[in-house]
Design brief:
The chain is α+β, with helices and mostly antiparallel strands. Helix content is about 20%, strand content about 40%. The chain is built from three helices and six strands; from the N terminus they run ααββαββββ. A six-stranded mixed β-sheet has the order 2-1-6-5-4-3, covered by helices on one side.
């Protein structure tokens, strides 16, 4: 008896765009890790943020738990999501507008950050979920809007 592995469909631009939108919604609402981790590869994950590089799920979780205690009232708006698809993998250029509030004690008020983050992702079809997963996430640069607070 032989087992035939089903061919998974190639990625599509819409699938990748929808994935990015849901990913950012999860970040906006500070979703529980059980909802966030399925978006990330279990093996070989590299995520480069301006302040640190997370290698693997444990590093990402440390980063995420720290930033959700710093930033609030977050809104991510995808402005560009351009994939170069190769079967079940893609390199994706993402530009996301990020707005967030931050309070730095003892300041009397919070400050609002508003910027465009230029990013490069690598995504692939997940063998464990059948959906997409991020294998590489690199923040290439941050472009602050006029009047924005700085990180």
């Amino acid at each position: 008896m032989s087992t035939v592995r089903q061919m998974q469909p190639s990625l599509t631009p819409k699938e990748i765009s929808d994935f990015a939108a849901v990913w950012y919604r999860k970040l906006d609402v500070h979703a529980p890790m059980v909802e966030v981790l399925p978006f990330l590869a279990e093996e070989g994950l590299i995520m480069k943020f301006p302040e640190t590089t997370a290698s693997g799920l444990a590093d990402f979780e440390s980063w995420f738990q720290r930033v959700i205690r710093i930033f609030f009232d977050e809104v991510h708006t995808v402005k560009e999501c351009t994939p170069k698809i190769s079967g079940n993998e893609a390199e994706v250029h993402v530009v996301v507008q990020w707005e967030a509030s931050v309070w730095n004690p003892p300041a009397p008020n919070s400050a609002r950050i508003k910027l465009d983050a230029d990013q490069t992702w690598k995504v692939r079809r997940s063998e464990r979920t059948g959906g997409l997963e991020i294998t590489m996430y690199n923040v290439n640069g941050l472009n602050y809007h006029p009047g924005s607070a700085k990180l």
